[in-house]
Write a structure and sequence with these properties.
It is built from twelve helices and twelve strands. It is of the alpha/beta class. It has three domains: 9-87, Winged helix-like DNA-binding domain superfamily/Winged helix DNA-binding domain (Arc Repressor Mutant, subunit A), CATH 1.10.10.10; 95-166 and 268-299, D-Maltodextrin-Binding Protein, domain 2; 169-265, Periplasmic binding protein-like II (D-Maltodextrin-Binding Protein, domain 2). Strand 1 (54-55) and strand 2 (62-63) form a beta hairpin.
Length: 315
């Protein structure tokens, strides 16, 4: 049986994106196509197959039984095709057309520039996402990105390349002279300035605070480390951060005290995650370059700035 005209990988990619987003406009934006082009591709694919793939009588459009069947097969086909394309280019020593990486904010701001500069020849076009991390894992599963860098639990479907484990630190305003033997003392005199609870780091800190039995009413919460630390620097409260987050807010450090976190230690592990069997060599090289940047360029600065912290980073 010969493949009919209009039944090709590009059409299947468009269909899978529409099926995932359940919205023509959102799919068109992601694919960098016009909405009319996406709609025409879906209609042509349905005409070629002789079946309806989308139930347009509901909003948002839902997959028909035939559409669900095609989506399952098409996703696997596209994944194998992408892997074949990249392996072929790698074997020939060619860079990728596009490399897509999602990174947590602090890593993107502090490590990202040197990382991209070192690996720039690996792709003609770099697309770097940054921001809060919860949606990054879904983007990797959906092949919207090739790698993600952040705090993620292990998954047998993914390859994990450890980059660094960094400790959490106590942050106080520079002029605060009160007792700080435990966080309960601090919480009694200052409000907690939270890092967004939509982030993994914010959730870790919240669990730590709750486990310590601290009652810290919700009052101040910020989506970025620089904003959080700027508020603490103005004397609006106390907080918990990490060295990389602190370096993300270098301009605020003169107004802050960064101290060992009293009580049980808390740390976060930052890793690079990729699909098993896809771009394995590049994924490991990217993780190694990140480790080198942190140890050769950032650790000296961290130890200079925070001499009394006795920071012990591990990878």
């Amino acid at each position: 049986m010969r493949l009919p005209h209009g039944f090709d990988l590009r059409a299947l990619e468009v269909f899978c994106c529409v099926a995932r987003e359940r919205n023509m406009t959102a799919a068109a934006k992601q694919l960098e196509l016009s909405q009319s082009s996406v709609s025409q591709t879906i209609s042509q694919l349905e005409c070629t197959l002789g079946v309806a793939l989308l139930d347009r009588s509901v909003r948002p459009p839902a997959l028909t039984h035939a559409g669900q069947s095609l989506k399952k097969s098409a996703e696997a086909l596209i994944e194998h095709s992408i892997a074949a394309l990249r392996e072929t280019r790698e074997s020939a020593g060619l860079g990728l057309p596009t490399l897509r990486i999602a990174m947590i904010d602090s890593f993107a701001a502090v490590v990202g520039p040197a990382l991209v500069s070192t690996l720039q020849d690996q792709a003609k076009h770099w697309r770097v996402w940054s921001g809060l991390s919860p949606g990054h894992l879904d983007a990797l599963y959906d092949h919207q990105v090739d790698f993600i860098v952040g705090e993620h639990t292990g998954d047998s479907r993914l390859q994990q390349h450890s980059i660094i484990r960094e400790p959490f630190l106590l942050v106080l305003p520079l002029n605060d002279k009160g007792p700080r033997d435990n966080i309960a003392q601090i919480a009694r005199r200052l409000p907690l300035v939270r890092y967004s609870l939509r982030s993994r780091i914010g959730q870790q800190v919240e669990s730590y605070i709750e486990a310590a039995g601290i009652n810290a009413p919700m009052a101040l919460e910020f989506d970025t480390a620089p904003a959080q630390l700027a508020m603490i620097g103005e004397g609006l409260g106390w907080g918990v951060t990490t060295p990389l987050c602190a370096l993300h807010a270098r301009g605020e450090l003169a107004k802050l005290q960064l101290l060992p976190l009293p009580g049980p230690a808390l740390s976060r592990e930052i890793s690079l995650l990729s699909h098993c069997g896809q771009l394995d060599a590049l994924a490991e090289r990217t993780a190694q370059v990140a480790r080198d940047v942190i140890h050769e360029e950032l650790l000296p600065e961290l130890h200079t700035r925070f001499k009394d912290l006795n920071l012990n980073f591990s990878t």
